[in-house]
């Protein structure tokens, strides 16, 4: 078994390489993905090894990138589009919602759109305006799209390959602040044996309260669980992994045991994923709950300037405060 220690970014790079090797119909396209290897170097070395017909530097036109990919997907290719930063996806939003999400339904199932839209998202890197957004709710709300997000190198390596192999259009959200975090990656495990793409997973078992998180906030939730253990509280942390379809089976089982639930995400709280999750948990686990489902989120303001982003982002203290409040009922 070939297990290596990789950063999350390198795990994505290795997963993309495997997908290109295994299927000649896979093409990667986006701004600076070729010669430069992407601004975060996620596609580093791929154009050199696979050529500029399969790893394609595009003009600075996000709508054009996605529109072109739709045509390629209809013709049997499996395009992987990189949106350079989360805040740059909005010019492509019309194509994603009006074409990518609708084509299969519009054609009565005759046309499939096997494409992946990679989006580095979230804050924590001190970037300028339009470079630190959390747009997941827009896409999870759109019928016809699937939305997933990785939180560690092993999932990054496997999930990107699973997404590319899927016949459905998938928005693949990458937590940019975690690109440099390292973990063990099993490079030899076959995809057929991998954990399902659209399934949540228990990241840390616990008995006293359930913390639900995804993407960049999974590490924050795990750190909070470690801190809580010093005070004698065992938090169960669940990495949701898939936002649409939303898999809450593990969450229901956990909350029915712990009786308490805190949902954490970077995006603003108003109409965020936490609202839907809290509603479903309350509906399914009402008679097991010892307190209301609480949310720890970004604030309902435009993403702030880099100097104050740490005041905006949920952190360990805010998560622990919410856990404490669940025990106050």
Lay out the secondary structure.
Elements (H helix, E strand, L loop, with lengths): L2 E5 H15 L3 E5 L15 H5 L4 E3 L4 H13 L3 E5 L10 H8 L2 H4 L9 E6 L14 H5 L5 E4 L3 H13 L4 E6 L6 E5 L14 E4 L4 E5 L3 H13 L5 E5 L2 E3 L4 H10 L2 E8 L4 H13 L8 E5 L10 H4 L3 H11 L3
Parallel strand pairs: 2-3, 2-4, 4-5, 5-7, 6-7, 10-11, 10-13, 13-14
Antiparallel strand pairs: 1-8, 6-12, 9-11
How is this structure best described in words?
There is one protein chain. This protein is of the alpha/beta class and 329 residues long. It has a seven-stranded mixed beta sheet, sandwiched between helices. The model has no long low-confidence stretch (mean pLDDT 97).
List the defining traits of the structure above.
329 residues; alpha/beta; 5-stranded mixed β-sheet; 14 strands; 21% strand
Strand order of the main beta sheet, please? 3-2-4-5-7-6-12
Tell how many strands the DSSP assignment holds: 14
User: What helical percentage do the residues reach?
Assistant: 25-40%
**What gyration radius follows from the Cα positions, in whole Å?**
20 Å
Strand content: 15-25%
How many helices does DSSP assign?
Answer: 12
Global shape? globular
Order of helices and strands: EHEHEHEHHEHEHEEEEHEEHEHEHH
- Biggest sheet features: 7 strands, mixed
The average pLDDT score comes to 97
pLDDT under 50 segments (min length 5)? none
Distance between the termini: 49 Å
Structural class: alpha/beta
